[in-house]
Specification:
Number of strands of chain A: 4
Oligomer: heterodimer
Number of helices of chain A: 15
Radius of gyration of chain A: 22 Å
Number of strands of chain B: 6
Number of domains of chain A: 1
Structural class of chain A: mainly alpha
Largest sheet of chain A: 2 strands, antiparallel
Helix content of chain B: 55-70%
Number of helices of chain B: 18
Helix content of chain A: 55-70%
Largest sheet of chain B: 2 strands, antiparallel
Order of helices and strands of chain B: HHHHHHHHEEEEEHHHHEHHHHHH
Strand content of chain A: 5-15%
CATH class of chain A: Mainly Alpha
Number of domains of chain B: 1
CATH architecture of chain A: Orthogonal Bundle
CATH topology of chain A: ABC transporter involved in vitamin B12 uptake, BtuC
Radius of gyration of chain B: 24 Å
Distance between the termini of chain A: 45 Å
Distance between the termini of chain B: 60 Å
Shape of chain B: globular
Strand order of the largest sheet of chain B: 1-6
Strand content of chain B: under 5%
CATH topology of chain B: ABC transporter involved in vitamin B12 uptake, BtuC
Order of helices and strands of chain A: HHEEHHHHEHEHHHHHHHH
Largest interface: A-B, 42 and 47 residues
């Protein structure tokens, strides 16, 4: 029993990332009808927003402290972030420590802007082109984005730690009455799951309970009629693209402490996220979220040593295997709507 | 795929009107000319690709060394095969590298178990890749559009993951597979201990080269290259025949309107499956040739980026055209091997004639796009092609030709008009 709970928890954080990226992909597909292969790159850009922000916070100057010496006897060179001077030493250190969560505030406007620019500048011209062309041009864009990041940040992963308060794990098993040490779970992964749940809830609430969301849903169902009613649906869809980009970006920001960001992390996630979207059903938002968590958890179960003993290597292929089975038995995916991407 | 019915159709010039009249080898006049051109290019590639004398500053743009020339033709085969599927039927496979990889593994096992002769290895590669494609195609082709792309991608990634982990006894896992002197080659005499096995064709080693020095130029004629080139020419010939055949027409019908095809009472499935298998066999041939040239395989050959690369090649050159994929393959491999070698000092050398500050500025601007950053250039180029030239380089060439011709025509027309005016006066 405890092993099962542990694997479910293990699946949640990866599943959260899959669900967030897949949610964004589905939003873009459902509104604009575009298959966005650059969505993984947006995830990656979000992660690098966090890197950039924490580097900005740590911009520092050096001065020579004559009263102290280093081990060679020279006067000590002290590096002090400008932030210490602005906020005072303890507050400054706290802000730097909390760089990753704070960079959410930085990432939202940046990612919204990137999303809107991307839609207006490029994707707009591809609505009438075949899906294959959309895939290809966004694939090209993804290559360009990741090469730009590689140029500025190098090819190596950049460790970006979580705040000190969240480093370490807590004994989840002891809390719910199992033996101590049976279910140990890192704090940050719990935070990540909670964060993902909030974002997903926020997106659904936004679509469900606001007028803007209602119009967008109407536009997804029947774009032409909405346009005939005199609503500028294109502008709203552009904003939705921005929101989808921001969702992917935030997923990336919060993922940095789990996995040090590197320039190709987006592509690694993208392939799996597409599988997730297809399994969930193209164009179905709940399907994307459900499939994201489901595949994350299944992957976690497949990585159990007991399973690996019986079926070696199954953890590497399980997601694809599930995808193939789902696509062949339920061609529209788990919760796919009729008439989406069909011939 | 319905969208493609209306505006995704890339016109192909390959269906020549006089397919039966004139021309040899069962080719139309136009196709024959194209084919002979490709034959000539392959035969004289060591000259064409080495235009700069040895030791000059531009010598690094020479692509006439065996390893790269082999890659040109082998990836040309790969792209030709991909084009048979994507260019004709419009099914975008994102997992084509799996067939190349499977073919490579089959090839190396033939060379390990049977003989160092490359012929059984290549045949084995084609057969095994074809069988694998039959299985994958049978399942994947039940869906179309993005679902098909994802299914093929899933199969390819599964093959990669399996080759990398579980199937290590068969594939060598992370280290890959190499030939060893102690392999049980049942048709060959055992090799002396410690000798590296080399692939050969009835005793002619793949690595054997004849070097010709003409003045300051050095041309290398490599046995492996010519064997791969002959394979490429056969593959190319096959693709021309296939494009012009009734079967090719059926495949184009699948691309332009599958519904209409079904209403006529024809099931598209056997045709698409056949195209998928043929395309897989082409990939297998390419994989077998790769093994024949460098006698090693690694699982990364099947990673999805490798599948993405063949998509890039085909689109960049021109999907649905005959010569496009070959051009695209050559283009990308040239970039990968030559442009990636340009480093900062080389750039500084080129622009040394400028004033110092201008050299610095120019080098700083260009540097991100060459050397290690060549992928950036490739990505930008690829995007530009998809946006502005959906027909790839071939369409670009045609457009250019049309513009030039129109220019000449309009000049003629002006002259005619002028003459008439004079006559009227």
């Amino acid at each position: 029993m405890d092993a099962i709970i542990l694997q479910i928890l293990n699946g949640l954080d990866k599943g959260s990332a899959y669900a967030l990226i897949a949610l964004g992909l589905t939003l873009i597909f459902g509104t604009l009808g575009v298959v966005n292969f650059a969505h993984g790159a947006l995830f990656m850009l979000g992660a690098f927003c966090a890197v950039t922000f924490s580097r900005l916070l740590q911009v520092s100057y050096t001065f020579t402290d004559a009263s102290r010496t280093d081990f060679l006897g020279n006067p000590l060179q002290v590096e002090v972030p400008y932030l210490y001077d602005i906020l005072g030493e303890s507050a400054g250190a706290a802000v730097i420590d909390w760089a990753v969560p704070i960079s959410i505030l930085f990432a939202i406007p940046v990612m919204l802007l990137i999303g809107v620019i991307m839609e207006r500048g490029l994707i707009k011209h591809f609505y009438k082109r075949p899906h294959a062309d959309q895939i290809l041009v966004t694939f090209g864009l993804a290559i360009v984005l990741q090469e730009i990041i590689k140029y500025f940040y190098g090819a190596n992963p950049i460790p970006t730690p979580a705040p000190d308060a969240f480093i370490g794990s807590f004994d989840f098993g002891a809390m719910i009455g199992f033996d101590a040490g049976s279910i140990v779970y890192p704090y940050w992964r719990m935070v990540y799951f909670g964060f993902a749940a909030i974002i997903i809830g926020a997106v659904f609430a936004f679509l469900r309970f606001t007028t803007f969301g209602m119009v967008v849903r109407a536009g997804m169902a029947d774009r032409e009629t909405v346009t005939l009613l005199g609503i500028d649906i294109d502008r709203r869809f552009t904003i939705m693209f921005g929101i989808a980009a921001a969702v992917a970006g935030l997923a990336g920001v919060m993922y940095t402490p789990i996995n040090s960001p590197n320039y190709h992390m987006g592509m690694d996630f993208l392939v799996l996220s597409f599988v997730v979207v297809v399994v969930g059903g193209m164009g179905s938002l709940p399907g994307a979220v459900l499939a994201g968590f489901l595949l994350g958890i299944i992957e976690a179960f497949a990585s159990m040593p007991e399973v690996l003993d019986v079926l070696p290597g199954i953890n590497q292929i399980i997601i694809y295997l599930v995808a193939i089975i789902v696509l062949l038995t339920r061609p529209r995916g788990l919760m796919g709507r009729k008439g989406v991407m069909e011939d | 795929m319905t969208d493609q019915a209306t505006d995704g159709f890339v016109p192909t010039q390959s269906k020549s009107k006089g397919a039966s009249a004139g021309g040899a080898l069962g080719l139309g006049k136009k196709d024959l000319r194209l084919f002979l051109l490709v034959v000539a290019m392959c035969a004289f590639a060591p000259f064409i690709l080495n235009p700069f004398p040895e030791g000059s500053g531009l010598a690094q743009f020479n692509a006439g060394y065996p390893d790269l020339m082999q890659r040109f033709v082998i990836f040309g085969i790969f792209a030709i095969g991909f084009n048979i599927l994507f260019g004709l039927t419009g099914y975008l496979s994102f997992g084509h590298a799996a067939f190349l990889g499977v073919g490579s593994y089959a090839g190396i096992w033939m060379m390990k178990l049977l003989t160092l002769n490359v012929i059984p290895a290549i045949i084995g590669s084609i057969v095994v890749a074809g069988l694998f494609a039959a299985i994958v195609g049978f399942i994947s082709l039940r869906r179309s559009g993005i679902y098909f792309s994802i299914l093929t991608l899933a199969f390819a990634m599964m093959s990669f993951a399996l080759a990398y982990s579980v199937l290590t006894p068969l594939t060598g896992g992370e280290t890959g597979m190499q030939l060893q002197y102690f392999d049980p080659r049942i048709l060959d005499a055992p090799l002396p201990e410690g000798q590296t096995p080399r692939a050969s064709l009835f005793g002619l080693e793949m690595a054997a080269s004849y070097e010709l020095e003409v003045g300051r130029w050095l041309f290398t004629f490599n046995a492996g290259y010519y064997i791969a080139a002959i394979a490429m020419l056969i593959a190319f010939y096959g693709s021309i025949r296939l494009f012009n055949s009734p079967f090719g027409m059926m495949l184009r019908a699948v691309k332009s309107n599958q519904n209409r095809l079904s209403y006529t009472g024809i099931s598209p499935k056997p045709y698409t499956l056949a195209a998928f298998i043929i395309s897989g066999m082409y990939a297998g041939l390419a994989g077998g040739l790769l093994v024949a040239m460098d006698t090693q395989v690694g699982a990364e050959r099947m990673f999805w980026t490798a599948s993405g690369e063949v998509v890039l090649m085909t689109i960049l050159g021109g999907a649905g055209t005959l010569i496009g994929p070959v051009l695209g393959a050559g283009f990308i491999k040239y970039f990968e091997n030559i442009v990636s070698k340009i480093n900062k000092s080389v750039l500084e050398g080129w622009f040394a004639w400028m004033p110092d500050w201008m050299t610095d500025v120019t080098v700083t601007i260009i540097y991100p796009f060459v050397g290690k950053g060549w992928h950036l250039t490739l990505g930008i180029l690829f995007m530009a092609v998809v946006i502005f030239l959906p027909g790839g380089l071939v369409q670009g060439g045609q457009k250019l030709a049309t513009v030039l011709r129109r220019d000449r025509k309009s000049k003629d027309a002006e002259r005619d008009a002028a003459i008439q005016r004079q006559a009227g006066e």
